[in-house]
Amino acid sequence: MKRQTNAPEVCPCVPLCPLRLEICLVLALTIVLASTIACSKGTSVAASGTVSPAKTSESPTATLAPHEAVPSDSAPLPHIDSKRAFQYTREVTAFGARYIGSENHKKLERYIVDHLKGDQVEDDAFAADTVEGKFPVRNIIAKFPGTKDGIIVIMGHYDTVYPLRNSGFVGANDGGSSTAILLEFANQLRGGLRDKKRDGYSVWLVWTDGEEAVKTWSDTDSVYGSRHLAEKWEKDGTLKKIKALMVMDMIGDADLDIQRNTKGASWLLDLIYSAAERLGYQSHFYAVEEPIEDDHVPFFNRGVPCADVIDLDYGYNNVFHHTPQDTMDKLSPKSLEIAGDTILETIHMLDQR
Ligand code: ZN
């Protein structure tokens, strides 16, 4: 995944702000003023200037209880097995570099499929033409049918960075955490089936392949698997049935702060925030907003309601991203739990709509 370089929405409070100081000061003053106005309307402005969905105002005159903005729901809150999810991350990372075309990649394909025994599993396999040659690419799809008409898609990539194949890069967070959280989602979804169907929309889990660029990130050198799948699902009519598509990426960082990726449907981003609020995890979401390119882009560009759940702030100033320092010791089971439970709760809230 990659930050959009022409990102217009840079927070004036983040370190390494590219704006000149006087512009920063004007912006900061504007935000303080906007905050004062917004609070009086029952919304609040995060430190980044992000307008968060209805939260309790800090004003002493506020009368709303913290969770009043979220509709009441008696369903139990979801709870993934974060130890198990963390163990999956450890096992996936232990394969070593898992770039497209590699032996370790094949081992991981088998590992994923072995964990989906008894599930409805499909492949979307093809040969990708890249600047580094042709590579086999395989998206693995596990389908959990539901009683409601429509599909919720959850994606996470399992390949690691090709250009870093000889650097010692093992992608514990980038590639490992996304593979693992989807395996844990499969456990949770499988357990919730009644008469072979879940009570709600069908949920399809997609382990995407070829998310990483083989040379330099561009529209044609990135997200090979999801570009192929978006095209395929456009042709066969699947896209029209998708109610929401969420991508999980780099969600294992012990210091979890998920950006509000503006390349997404705002109602879905708001719903994820509400789900986080229900669980008391909102402080890990949306302090910063910015456009980030990831596996959702080919679907987003085709009008599918998307959200990319990503923490692209991995170590101070993202220093561990795409380096051999992306290792297990930087991750935490709690982060998998925060991201995992929030997305399961979002699925539950989507089912109610
Ligand atoms: Zn990456």
What this model shows, in words?
- The protein is α/β, with parallel strands linked by helices and 353 residues long.
- The chain folds into two domains: 2-52, no CATH class; 82-352, Zn peptidases (Aminopeptidase, 3-Layer(aba) Sandwich).
- The protein is built from eight helices and twelve strands.
- The strands form four sheets. It has a six-stranded mixed β-sheet, sandwiched between helices.
- Helix 6 crosses helix 8.
- Residues 1, 161, 174, 212, 322 line the site of zinc ion.
Task: Give the topology, please.
Elements: E1 2-3, H1 21-40, E2 44-45, E3 51-52, H2 82-94, H3 103-114, E4 120-130, E5 133-144, E6 146-157, H4 172-191, E7 198-208, H5 224-235, E8 242-249, E9 258-261, H6 266-279, E10 285-290, E11 292-293, H7 297-300, E12 306-310, H8 333-352
Parallel strand pairs: 6-7, 6-8, 8-12, 9-10
Antiparallel strand pairs: 1-11, 2-3, 4-5, 5-7
This protein binds zinc ion.
Residues 1, 161, 174, 212, 322 line the site of zinc ion.
